[in-house]
Amino acid sequence: MKKIVSFLIISLSFTSVKAQQVSDALQYGQxxxxxxxxxxxxxxxxxxxxxxxxxxNVNPAGSAIFTDNFASVTLTNFNxxxxxxxxxxxTSSSDTSFxxxxxxxxxxxxxxxxxxxWSKFSFAINYDNTNNYNNSVYSQGYNPTNSISNYFIxxxxxxxxxxxxxxxxxxxxxxEQQGYLGYNAYIINPEPxxxxxxxxxxxxxxxxxxxxxxxxxxxKASFNIATEYDKRFxxxxxxxxxxxxxxxxxxxxxDYLDSxxxxxxxxxxxxxxxxxxxxxxxxxxxxxxxxxxxxxELRVGLSYExxxxxxxxxxxxxxxxxxCPDCNTLQDDFFAGPNTTIFYxxxxxxxxxxxxxxxxxxxxxxxxxSIDYSLRDYSNLKxxxxxxxxNANAAINSSLDISNEVRIGAEYRIKQWxxxxxYRFEESPYKNHNTVGDLNSFSGGFGYNFGDIKLDMxxxxxxxxxxxxxxxxxxxxxxxIKAIQNNVTLTLGFEL
Length: 496
What we know:
Layout: E1 11-14, H1 22-29, H2 37-41, E2 70-86, E3 89-110, E4 118-132, E5 135-143, H3 149-156, H4 161-166, H5 174-184, E6 188-191, E7 195-198, E8 206-229, E9 233-255, E10 270-293, E11 298-305, E12 309-323, E13 340-343, E14 347-350, E15 354-363, E16 367-377, E17 382-384, H6 390-399, E18 402-414, E19 417-426, E20 439-449, E21 453-469, E22 478-495
Parallel strand pairs: 1-13
Antiparallel strand pairs: 2-3, 2-22, 3-4, 4-8, 5-8, 6-7, 8-9, 9-10, 10-11, 10-12, 11-15, 12-13, 12-14, 14-17, 15-16, 16-18, 18-19, 19-20, 20-21, 21-22
Helix pairs in contact: 3-5
């Protein structure tokens, strides 16, 4: 006899590492174009230019381009709209937030030794939010064939009924916990040979909703040193401290009232499966870069960004509620799954390194044009300890690929005014571009130079499509998501 899965007190437990996914690795392995308004208005094409605090995130040699001590602070309005299509049903959701996403300063030291070609040194400290995770995605529609029960079956198969019925939830592995939920909530039934079958209406046409709310950030504090040699060559180093704090809450609802042949007085009528995952941690990376003035107008840059080595922690809370009038004589309506927070052991994530080549042409004091090309092999993402993440790392290696990125920026100056524009293209990190598509982004902005104070504003537009499965296995039907970002950035800079 199945027991009631209902706990009134939140319990805390520790268990083995949960099943990591490719998308989890990409969450921290990709960076957005954030930073100062000038940097964003030119789509981040600063690898051969420097002279901007966010530019050192591309090429650390860029701080030596500054001629005076300088500081800046940036505020951004982030707006993301997600248009979802799920089995022909279209929905839309959006999220708007404000963030002080950049703060930094650079100090420039002239070398007064006339016999030395090392003419200048610079030291900078800069903080950038490399990712803003505030987002909202909502999908709904009628699935003609697949139910949430397939998710629980995929985990339960191979596990004995005695384990799912007689072992305390806190003592189970992650896979066993998922099977436990489906079994004790009457969504799956035991079959011979430790196999399981669906207990829901088999006739399809399941109404489903999926809501995902996320919040948090991924930030980077850069400690930079750079130097100028012979007034033509610039070299720099960044030591980066990374911080992440990210919460995602998903709620999947399914009902069978419109399923052909459904008996509203017997069997499972509806279910809601909610997951809240909280991930936090820190990491380290370094960057090396060089810029050369080939002529007074032409500049080239080259930089290397190491992998980021993260130490991450996960906390997971799951709740499964089911409406089943005749499943249990004590409780006919909804009853909840274990209200338990699971703490997982600290694990490591190594992201992929990045190479950037840059070219810029400066038209005296009237303007400039700049191009950056970056390459990153996302198949090198890796969870550690490797022996505990064999399946996840194999999935990363088989599904991810080399991604190319091109950023183009231009600036035109009219007295104290500067007009700017940019374009960014980032190739999908997946071998199958249907999973996540290519990113296209346009940007523009302006700035005004008051002398010791500079005020800059930028607008950026970015669009990317993806097919987002609701679950990682068993039930992998996807909603097609078109994500559109509209961001407005304001930066105040001043010479010290």
